[in-house]
Amino acid sequence: MGLLDRLNDDMKQAMKNKEKDKLSVLRMLKAALQNEAIKLGKSQLSEDEELTVLSRELKQRKDSLQEFENAGRMDLVEKAKAEIEIVQLYMPKQLTEEELLEIVKQTIAEVGASSKADMGKVMGAIMPKVKGKADGSLVNKLVQQQLSQ
C-alpha cells in the first residue's frame, strides 16, 4: 500500500472517529505530497521523494514548536506536538544514537576525513544513508564530535 493510499484510509478513519485535528494534519500531508508530484511533473512520487516531503513537513513543525516555546504560547505548543506525533507515524523507524554513531564512524573512515575541514564531505556522504531516519542536527552534532577527537 502506497503512502497516499494509507493517508486516504487514515483520513476516512479520522472522519468516522470525528478526529478533526488528525484529519487536518493528514490533509496537509496529502496536499504536500500531491503538490510535490505536480511540481515534479509526475503522477506518483517515489518512496525517496515521499520521504523528502514528510521530512520537510516534520522539520517545519519542529521549527514551529521551537518558536512557540520561545514565545511562551503553550496553547500552540500542544497543537504542534500533536501534529509532530501524527507526521512521525508515517516516517520510517528512527535510528538510535548508537546506530547513528556507528554510521558516522563508518562514513568518516570511508571518505578519509580527519578534521573539521572535512565536515561537508562527511555530511554529504552520510545524509543520503540516513535520510528520514535521523534528525540532521543530531547527525551534524555526532560528526562534529567525531571529527574533533
Automatic annotation (TrEMBL):
Its keywords, alphabetically, are: Coiled coil
Keyword Coiled coil in the entry? The reply is: yes
The protein's name in its UniProt record = GatB/YqeY domain-containing protein
Report the coiled-coil segments: 4-71
Which PANTHER family does the entry mention?
ALTERED INHERITANCE OF MITOCHONDRIA PROTEIN 41, MITOCHONDRIAL
Q: Which domain of life is it from?
A: Bacteria
Q: Which InterPro entries match?
A: Asn/Gln_tRNA_amidoTrase-B-like (IPR003789), GatB_Yqey_C_2 (IPR023168), YqeY/Aim41 (IPR019004), YqeY/Aim41_N (IPR042184)
Listed GO MF terms: carbon-nitrogen ligase activity, with glutamine as amido-N-donor
